[in-house]
């Protein structure tokens, strides 16, 4: 797909804000955009992207429900946490603020969740804690379970080990490798300069790079960190036994770290699978194909 042009960077959706309270005299807000009416369809991004990821996907389904695409805390146009540091942008904190956000928007029933990477993990966790509210879950390149270092591709293992080590903060602040290296490598057709700049924007100040760094440290590798290990294990067990309809968006060519993940999710009940020509960021490589897959699947839900 390297010969294909990057998808359009234009983002027509104005952002709104939801206030989640104050912390140390600092107002916490999550930014989001919303379009359409009806039952909620919630879009959750991963690391290091934002709601901008879904700009070319949402138009395909905005006639099917109330589409909501959110920026996680510290990402996109959402607030930064005061006094950030190791552990501040934990999976648990993201999950807590996401739950508060959905409560504020009265997203409480017949919810379709659409997640990319860590956004999938947040979707699984929210669904496990709110099983009666979920109508369906679509996911791509999901973080579904604890992993071991052997699962991490060699081309990213070195960088992950550095970021998770004692020099990770300095590396993140000096070079921003999650945005400058991992992000472009996740898109087979490349990113338009405007798109990459949009993803860079929240992290131009080195002090604001804690969210992207912490996501690399939240991935439970060899049982660390244990809290996230337990949450993902519980969410994976719930998905393995729940009859909630699921749409697994696979990619071709396959992302190496996905082989074990495929074996896990293909055993889940009520699963529909589609394969799209994309790298790790399906919404940047194949947004129209993804949008059409969602538009075909959502009307089948009860």
TrEMBL record:
Top-level taxonomic group: Bacteria
Gene3D superfamilies, A to Z: alpha/beta hydrolase
GO cellular component, as recorded: membrane
Domain AB hydrolase-1: 40-173
InterPro entries: AB_hydrolase_1, AB_hydrolase_fold, AB_hydrolase_sf
EC nos: 3.8.1.5
Pfam family, one: Abhydrolase_1
Keyword Transmembrane helix tagged: no
Keywords: Hydrolase
Gene Ontology MF terms: haloalkane dehalogenase activity
NCBIfam families: PRK03592.1 (NF002938)
Entry protein name: Haloalkane dehalogenase
